[in-house]
């Protein structure tokens, strides 16, 4: 069994008997935070307790919400640079990966897709500054590259869906878009191909 744990981007794995999907509303940055509002840390730990660590695999799908909302907002709020917030987010995500490894699970990390070319206010959060589409494109690309580099340096499996679904401007190709944010089922064979190659 392959457990897929993450935010709403886990949807393309639903209704497939090879996958056990556990959707957790949460961010990569707060995945190690105990007693958070969304309790993502506790929900992840509950999923790990259900796994057969000898035979089951765990794939994490987090980070898109961080890129769409929180990274730009935190950079503005804290008068910081985008890369510093991205690096901090990846480091926090990495702590969750190390914890899983210490529990006998070596997680697979699925990178995030590029941003859609949507009306940016459709998914806006009242009261928070929102990045321009061009800024979002840069944030998503930089986040993926940083996460990919971190995983490679620590020998974690990283599946790069971003490079396979991004157009020349860094936005989600229409043939892979289920809506303004999420991948459709056309992207699933790409992920499965990478997965089979890495775990054969």
CATH-level-4 superfamily name: SGNH hydrolase
Helix content: 40-55%
CATH-scheme architecture? 3-Layer(aba) Sandwich
The third-level CATH topology is: Rossmann fold
Approximately how much beta-strand content do the residues carry? Answer: 5-15%
Kindly state the number of beta strands: 5
Poorly predicted residue ranges: none
What's the number of structural domains?
Answer: 1
Describe it.
Strand 4 (108-110), helix 4 (133-154) and strand 5 (157-159) form a beta-alpha-beta unit. Strands 2-1-3-4-5 form a 5-stranded parallel sheet, sandwiched between helices. The protein contains 6 helices and 5 strands; from the N terminus they run ββαβααβαβαα. The mean pLDDT is 92. The chain is of the alpha/beta class. The protein has a single domain, classed as SGNH hydrolase (Rossmann fold, 3-Layer(aba) Sandwich).
Give a concise summary.
42% of the residues lie in helices and 10% in strands.
What tags apply to this protein structure?
single chain; 200 residues; alpha/beta; Rossmann fold; 6 helices; 5 strands; globular
Chart the SSEs and their pairings.
Layout: E1 2-6, E2 19-23, H1 40-50, E3 57-61, H2 64-77, H3 82-102, E4 108-110, H4 133-154, E5 157-159, H5 162-165, H6 188-199
Parallel strand pairs: 1-2, 1-3, 3-4, 4-5
């Amino acid at each position: 069994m392959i457990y897929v744990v993450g935010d709403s981007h886990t949807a393309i794995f639903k209704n497939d008997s090879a996958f056990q999907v556990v959707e957790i509303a949460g961010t990569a940055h707060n995945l190690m935070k105990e007693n958070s509002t969304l309790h993502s840390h506790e929900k992840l730990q509950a999923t790990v307790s259900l796994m057969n660590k000898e035979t089951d695999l765990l794939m994490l799908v987090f980070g898109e919400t961080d890129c769409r909302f929180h990274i730009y907002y935190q950079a503005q709020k804290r008068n910081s640079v985008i890369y510093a917030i991205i690096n901090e987010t990846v480091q926090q995500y990495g702590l969750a990966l190390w914890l899983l490894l210490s529990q006998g699970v070596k997680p697979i990390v699925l990178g995030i897709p590029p941003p859609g070319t949507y009306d940016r206010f459709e998914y806006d959060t009242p009261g928070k500054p929102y990045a321009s589409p061009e800024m979002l494109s840069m944030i998503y690309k930089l986040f993926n590259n940083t996460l990919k580099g971190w995983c490679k340096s620590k020998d974690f499996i990283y599946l790069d869906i971003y490079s396979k679904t991004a157009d020349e401007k860094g936005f989600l190709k229409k043939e892979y878009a289920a809506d303004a944010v999420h991948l459709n089922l056309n992207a699933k064979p790409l992920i499965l191909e990478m997965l089979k190659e890495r775990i054969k």
